[in-house]
Amino acid sequence: MSVIYLLISVSIFVAIGFFIAFIIAVKSGQYDDDYTPSVRMLFDDETKITPQNNNSTIEEKQV
Amino acid sequence: MSEQGCFHCGLTIAKNEEINFDGKKFCCNGCKTVYEIFSLHDLTCYYDFEKSPGATPQDIQGKYDFLDNEAILSKLLEFQEGNTAIVSLNIPHIHCSSCIWILENLNRIQKGISISQVNFPEKRVRVTFNSDVVSLKSIAYLLSSIGYEPYISLENYEAGKNNVDRSLTYKLGVAFFCFGNIMLLSFPEYFEIKEFWLDNYKPFFRILIFLLALPSFLYSASGYYVSAYKSIKSRMLNIDIPIALGIIVMFVRSTFDIVMNYGSGFFDSLTGLVFFMLLGKMFQIKTYSFLSFERDFKSYFPIAVTKINMDTSEESVAIYDVVKGDRLLIRNQELIPVDGILISEKAEIDYSFVTGEAVPITKKSGDKVFAGGKQIGKVVEMEVLHSVSQSYLTQLWSNEIFQKNVEQKHKTITDKISRYFTPILLLIAFAGFGYWIFIDTNTAFNVFTAVLIVACPCALALTAPFTFGNILRIMGRQKMYLKNALVIEQLAKVDTIVFDKTGTITTNKKSNIVYEGSPISDENYLLIKNVLRASNHPLSRMLYDFLPDSKRLKVDNFEEITGKGILASIENKTIQIGSAAFIGISDLEAGEIEKTALHIKIDTEYYGQFNFQNQYRDGLAALFLTLSKKYQLKVLSGDNDGERSNLETILPKGTELIFNQKPEQKLEYIKKLQEKGCSVMMVGDGLNDAGALAQSNAGISISENVNVFSPACDAILDAHEFSRLDYFLKLSQKSILIIKMSFVLSLLYNVIGLSFAVTGNLLPLVAAIIMPLSTITIVSFVTLMSNYFSSSNLKSL
Q: Could you list the residue ranges that cross the membrane (chain A) (predicted)?
């Protein structure tokens, strides 16, 4: 049953790993703004979708 | 057709002014230009996220010239090394997802910008750019040209890099980490099953639990020890003393238990307690990052002004470098930063930010102009009399009230209760100890520690944060933004309310316009309206909005004479609109001098005058009537008493009206009331109320636009919600009631726990059940009650 030592130690280390990740995330300011990222993730490269804009990019390239 | 809004900004398009471009309709050239910029850079998706999200770009010629000044520039930049620079700009217009999108795609419009990132709640954009390719000035111009004018004020000049305090988040993280793991590890102990392998591993589990409890005990809870120590030092018993005592005793006893192999100790309860209390703290701090409650004149004053040198060359200088005798150039819409003497012939100065008065004041050459006014009209020159810090308005901030730490000003309800709680608790602990010591020494120590552990007022300490945190959010949703939870207690205690007049109980949005004189025919109304259209003077704008809609005519000749009026010819008629002197009639004919009026003369015939009266806010009379039943009401005004008789008819009897008050006098007046034992709430709006707002027990600032400006205060109330002031007062009183009710509830838990403790039967398991149970019931009780009160009060209104 001494495997319990190993198991518990491993689980604690995994937990500590996540904890460190959390600290790093806070430190880098990821939790300072909790609204903008939720909007930002919904944007993609919108400009490429509409055909109209494709035309204008071509025009620009020609210039 | 005209009902349809502008494609860019959404404003209704005036007839004849509609601009068709690219199949879209625009209200003005400014909006069209923004659209052109966007379509040129493939950014028309801007209009897909939100309908007409834009703002019309303002004329900003010369406004950002000071950004060429290296010294000022280096103060504004957040980071600069080599050619990489980072700047964080405040943009009040940020309001929707389109804004985020366009501002984060700035690099497509302007070369040299590498990254721009929006912080929506703070309404800021952080731009990383190559300073060799693009200057901050051109970024400012670019932003302005697309309708996102950055707001740069003196505040930015000093702030530099502000460090965000994230220690509470760290503490909470540590506490949760410890709490969760300890809970898992103590699980086997809860079911006291005699099993070989469990007994075998007990020491290992306990050592791990002990080690895990250390960070929570030493780091997460450290705030409580500091606070307890401070309060003992200042001989004020606050709630943190029993908390700190409970935590320490719990830790010592649990360590003792583990070392002596008596049991598993209370580490699970200990860490749980620390975690929940920190959670409460976190919940109480509801920040409105886009608002600032600490604003003084600095966030309002510009960073730099244009100085005229001896050799008539112009130069941008930082405000702090302006000295007596300098000559300054003030452009249209620029702020006068210092007291001085007007050199130019005439100027119109709008003091609405200072006094709340919407109508600008005319100054002549040689008149004194005070800092804080906004110049309207042509460029003027002035000579400096005082430096910034010595000006009439800014001197107010040297008053000691602005140096004080607000937190020490008031005592909280929790602290008041704990003044009784702590001695009683110690009494019980010692009584239990004294009783048991004659029977069994060992039990005596157990009882003593158990009392301190179980009575640790975690539920008590949690009620206030959760109630206030919830009320804070409820009020915030209804556009009453409180600085912190302490304000709620202050609001509940208020017995005297002092109102500022101009801008607070009156609105500067619309004015009550009354016409006196011989009747004007419809044709003439049409002519007047068309003449007014070309004028930018606030009075003209107000009158223009007041007159009925009409068709457009071409104005042949238009001349606006600063400080006097308008002279225009239209349809072969000469129209004069302006002051009595301008029209050529004596003051006697014009009636009372104190009235603000526009006189009308068409050709040679004098028609009459439009009088502008203060427009009181909707629901003012009803609000005062309800409030007068419970509170002493007073109105303080910086104006003369011309409005006295009018106010007396509107406001209930017994309302004290005091006129001609200077900013310092307002502050003194509040102070005197407080010395008499009154708890004063000040409701104001302008910079001249700043002193009174700071001195009062609760200072509320009324704001037409919460994003723009409000002086330092405890709460910001949206002007549209002004008539509901009594509701907010009632709600804060109810929240105190809720706290008192839940105090009773938590004391009940304490009594149950104590009965276990005093008899010497407190097992770790019992403690581990009672503590979270009391916490959860208290938190849910408090949340339910505050939601109930907020909505039931709503219905009764």
A: 6-26
Confidence grade of residue B211 (pLDDT, cut at 50, 70, 90): very high
Domain range for B622: 482-506+618-730
Using DSSP's 3-state secondary structure scheme, residue B482 falls into: strand
Minimal C-alpha gap between A61 and chain B (Å): 12
Q: Is residue B611 part of a domain?
A: no
Q: Are residues B664 and B767 in the same domain?
A: no
How many of the other CB atoms lie within 10 Å of CB of B14? 13
Q: Does residue B13 sit within a domain? A: yes
Q: Which two tokens stand for residue B515?
A: 């016409």
The reply to whether B167 touches chain A by the CB within 8 Å rule is: no
Residues B635, B726, single domain; the answer is yes
- With beta carbons under 8 A apart, name residues in chain B contacting A50: 44-45
Instruction: Give the CATH number of the domain where residue B122 resides.
Output: 3.30.70.100
The answer to whether position B335 is within a domain reads no
**In this structure, are B103 and B40 located in the same domain?**
no
Whether residues B716 and B752 share a domain: the answer is no
- Tokens linked to B550: 């009409």
Residue B390 tokens read as 């010595």
Residue of A nearest to B204 (CA): A5
Q: Helix H segments across B438-511?
A: 441-454, 458-477, 486-493
- Tell me the backbone φ, ψ of residue A7, rounded to 5 degrees: -60, -50
- The CA distance from B629 to A18, in Å, is 58
User: Do B688 and B779 belong together in one domain?
Assistant: no
> Could B120 and A36 be called an inter-chain contact, meaning their C-beta atoms sit closer than 8 Å?
yes
User: How far B409 CA lies from chain A's nearest CA (Å)?
Assistant: 29
Residue B714 within a domain: yes
Distance from CA of B291 to the nearest CA of A (A): 15
Give how far Cα B585 sits from Cα of B173, B217, B373, B524, Å. 76, 82, 29, 20
Q: Which residue has the tokens 């209200």?
A: B27
Facing A39 at nearest CB: one of B120, B170, B181: B120
| pLDDT number for residue B219 | 93
The total domain count for chain B is 4
CA of A21: which chain B residue's CA is closest?
A: B173
**Widest pairwise Cα distance in chain A:** 76
B470 against B353, higher pLDDT: B470
* Same-domain pairing of B626 and B756: no
Q: What is the pLDDT of residues B525-548, one digit of tens each?
A: 888 888 887 776 767 777 777 777
